Structure formats: structure tokens, C-alpha cells
Amino acid sequence: MFARLAMSVLPSISGKTNLDQACKTDPKSTTEPITNGCRLTWNITHNGDLAHWYHVWLDGSSPITWTVKVILTIVIAYVLRRLAHKLITKVTVRMAEGTMPERLREKTRTIFDGSPVLVSERRRQRAETMGSVLRSISSVIILGAATLTVLGYFGLNLTPFLASASIIGVAIAFGAQNLVKDFLTGMFMLLEDQYGVGDVIDVGSAKGTVEAVTLRTTRLRDADGVVWYVPNGEIKRVGNESQNWARVVLDVPVEYDVDLDKVRTLLSETASAMAAEPPWDEIILEDPTVWGVQALSNEAVVVRVVCKTAPGQQGDAARELRERLKKALDSAGLSIAAFTSA
After folding, report:
1. pLDDT tens profile 9-65
2. Within a 13 Å sphere around the CA of 177, how many CA atoms are in the beta-carbon half?
3. More confident residue, 269 or 3
């Protein structure tokens, strides 16, 4: 029945009496191969018309096979693209959320106002930026490969096209090398979580609080309110004052002939009392320590006091500690001496 249907559709193929006539475009050709599918059809049916119908419509060069290949290529490309996008989104979100340990994250949420918003914004921005770039790259690679494959089905010679694309790509890379440098630097900066929104950083040319981070630039605002836009590729080093914890370091110069034991006790008691009072008990993470004599001169002895604080809170803690130490020294009858470093 199927053979009769094939003969009625293609009456011109009748008279195929052997394998070469049925499965070759030119039966006299000694170089044209016979496909396994056509050979199997002939071996099963021994019907030349049916085998030739398979050769015309279902073999590798037939319209139906070509159409099926194109459709399958497009479908597979979009399925792979969708799966890649889902995987990238899942990985980037997990990376962004897992950068800061949960114990430290909970601690930081209790030591400065608005920290949940800043931490959430930082994770969201990092995840979205990385995810957007990686999804775009995956789409270009997958859809580009699918397009080249389909063009190959049309019989297009891709060698000159690929060569031209390579030359154009090299030319663009040379012309936009600074832009590429900015993007690569921004990508690695985000992946390594070097800094984020809300951090106080020093990039050499500018210092301030980070307001926005993109793959190309970092925007920060300094203490005077000036907004700085720094290209990521121009950043050679980054000093982050807001990562994990910070430290207050105060050098207190006192007169040369003062009782150092008394000074050490006074400084230690004053700093410890401050660390025990709210809200400083949440900002100061460890008991303050008097490290001792830091420098000597003919006019003064410099004693250093340090305390570990929450990230970004060292400035407020230092100002409060200076004020308390000044009052404590005045009450004890000790004066702060002038000091000039050697």
C-alpha cells in the first residue's frame, strides 16, 4: 500500500529494478555512496520505487531531511540556551548569596543601620550583573553555532565568512581594548567580591563610599560629596575599609615624664567602658587593647590604643573614643603633649 502511494506521488520513478537505480542519483556513478537507510529499505522491501522514494525524500540531501535538520537545530539551540540561562542564574545567585558567611552576615545586620538593605542590594547587583553578562555570552555562542550549522545545510562555504569575522573581531578588539579591559576587570572584581555598594574604598585616584558598580565603571562619593566615576580598567589597587571588620588606631601623645603604667590603665579603662555601653557594645567587636609605647621623642611619649569595630564604623568609634580619652586625661590631670615624629 505504501509503495503504491509512493508510485502515485512520484510516477516518474517507476522502473527502478536494482539497488543502484533506486538509491543513486546517477546509477552509472561508481563514486556516489549508497546510504544505509536506502540500502535497508531495499533489503526489506525489494521495491525499487519505495527505495528510490526514500532516496529522494528522506536521504541526507533530500528536502524533508534538510527541513527536519534545520528545525531540530533551532529547537536544540533554544533548549540549550534556556537551560544555560537557568543554570547561570542559579549559579550566580548562589555565588552572590554565599560570598559572605551567614554568621558574619547576621552579625553585620545588627551593628549598623540599613545593613540588610545594603547587603541585599550588593548581592542583587552582583548576581544580576554577572548573570546578564554570562547569559549574553552563552546566547551568542549557542545561537551563533546554530546559525552557522544552518548556513552549512544551505551549502554555504563558511571558510571566507569565518576568516572575515575573525579579522573584524581582531580589529574591534584593538580599537576597543580599553573597553574590553574595563569589562574584564569589572567581571573579575564582581566574581571575587572585592567591593560592593556601601563599601568605603580607596582606589588611589579617589576615596569614598561606593554607590554603584557596573562592568565598566565604579561610582563612589567622597567625604566632600563629590561623585567620582572610575573606569574599572584604571584601578590598579583597591583598599576596602568595609570588608568583614575594621580597626580604630589612636596614638595618644603624653608628656615625657608621665607615669606610663597610670596612662595605660587610664586608656584601657576608658576604652573598655565605652565598649560596654550601647550602642558601642554592638559596634566594637572585641575588647579594646593598649598596645603600648609607639614612639618616643624629647617632647612626648606616644601610646597606641586599638579596637576592632564593625565594617564602616571605625570613623564614628574613633571620634567618640578620642573625646572620651581627652576627658579622662583631663580628669586625671594629664595633658596631651605636642609630638613631632622624627
Report:
1. 444 444 567 777 778 776 777 667 777 777 888 888 888 888 777 777 666 666 667
2. 4
3. 269
> What is the SS3 assignment for 124?
helix
- Here the cell at position 145 is 553555532
- Global pTM reads 0.54
Give the count of beta carbons closer than 10 Å to the beta carbon of residue 186: 23
Q: Can you tell me the distance from the alpha carbon of 285 to that of 29, in angstroms, rounded to the nearest whole number? A: 88
Helical pair 260-276 and 314-331, crossing angle rounded to 10 deg: 130
> What per-residue confidence (pLDDT) applies to 244?
79
Burial code (b: 16+ CB inside 10 Å, e: under 16) for 233-248 equals bebeebebbbbebbeb
Whether the Cβ atoms of residue 203 and residue 237 lie closer than 8 Å to each other: yes
Burial bucket for residue 82 (CB in 10 Å: 0-12, 13-18, 19+): exposed
Q: How far is CA 139 from CA 95, 191, 210, 255, in A?
A: 21, 20, 31, 70
Output the nine-digit C-alpha cell for 268.
584601657
In the sheet that holds 227-231, the strands lie side by side as 227-231, 217-221, 207-213, 200-202, 239-240
225: left (phi over 0), alpha (psi -120 to 50) or beta: left
- What is the rounded CA–CA span in Å between residue 240 and residue 233? 17
Please, are residues 272 and 247 in contact by the beta-carbon 8 Å criterion? Answer: no
CB 208 within 8 A of CB 222: yes
279-302: per-residue pLDDT in tens? 898 889 888 999 989 988 888 899
- What integer pLDDT is reported at residue 96 of this predicted model? 62
| pLDDT tens-digit readout, 117-161 | 555 666 666 677 677 778 888 888 898 888 888 877 776 666 676
Full DSSP string of 60-103 = TTSHHHHHHHHHHHHHHHHHHHHHHHHHHHHHHHHHHHHSS-HH
